[in-house]
Design brief:
Elements lengths: L5 H15 L15 H8 L5
Length: 48
C-alpha cells in the first residue's frame, strides 16, 4: 500500500531537482498540484 500522495512526492521531487539543477526556473504540472505545493515551489524554490 502506497501512503505517499502525489503532492508529497512532487514536493520531494522538486526539492531534489532544485538542489541538483538550481538553474531550472519553470516546471509544468497538471491541475491536481495546487495549494501549498505551488506556493512553496514559487516562494521558496523560486520556480514557476
Amino acid at each position: 500500500m502506497n501512503t505517499l500522495t502525489d503532492r508529497d512526492g512532487g514536493l520531494t521531487l522538486l526539492v531534489r531537482l532544485h538542489e541538483r539543477h538550481w538553474r531550472v526556473t519553470r516546471v509544468w504540472a497538471d491541475g491536481g498540484y495546487t495549494g501549498q505545493l505551488v506556493n512553496y515551489t514559487r516562494e521558496v524554490l523560486r520556480v514557476v
